[in-house]
Amino acid sequence: MIICYNFKMINFEDFQKLDIRIGTIISAERVPRADKLLKLEVDLGTDKRQILAGIAEFIDDPNKLVGKQIPILTNLEPKKFRGYESQGMMLAVGTDNKPVLLHPAEIVPNGSKIR
């Protein structure tokens, strides 16, 4: 039996299109005049990406994110927010009070693909 909780099922071929890789945050700062946005620079091993994340209101000091490894959806079309381009999406768990960042249980090479 499959139980579905208000989300749309996708087929396996669609899932295979997602390219999720681990990257290390090398810089983090608030986006001016945007209460919710952080601008992250992430090292994905083969390249560096700018990612905009809507978590600023939950982070007291963005510098505490530097050095953390996080999963990034790397093949999402770039999108501009407040004049900055986001080149992927950081993955986090949504809780009632705040997002919780996901990270590998141990350090892995940047660019490692999530399978």
Overview of the molecule:
It is globular and about 40 Å long. A five-stranded antiparallel β-sheet has the order 3-2-1-4-7, with no helix packed on it. The chain has a two-stranded antiparallel sheet with strand order 5-6. Strands 8-9 form a two-stranded antiparallel sheet. The model has no long low-confidence stretch (mean pLDDT 92). The protein is built from one helix and nine strands; from the N terminus they run H-E-E-E-E-E-E-E-E-E. The protein is 4% helix and 37% strand. It is mainly beta and 115 residues long. The protein has one domain: OB fold (Dihydrolipoamide Acetyltransferase, E2P) (Beta Barrel), CATH 2.40.50. Strand 2 and strand 3 form a beta hairpin. The two termini are 24 Å apart.
CATH superfamily: Nucleic acid-binding proteins
Structural class by SSE content: mainly beta
Task: Give helix % range.
Answer: under 10%
Overall mean confidence score, pLDDT? 92
| Highest CATH level, the class | Mainly Beta
SSE order, as H and E? HEEEEEEEEE
What summary fits the major beta sheet? 5 strands, antiparallel
CATH topology (level 3) name: OB fold (Dihydrolipoamide Acetyltransferase, E2P)
Low-confidence stretches: none
Mind telling me which CATH architecture this is? Beta Barrel
Order the strands across the largest sheet as they lie in space.
Answer: 3-2-1-4-7
Proportion of residues in β-strands = 35-45%
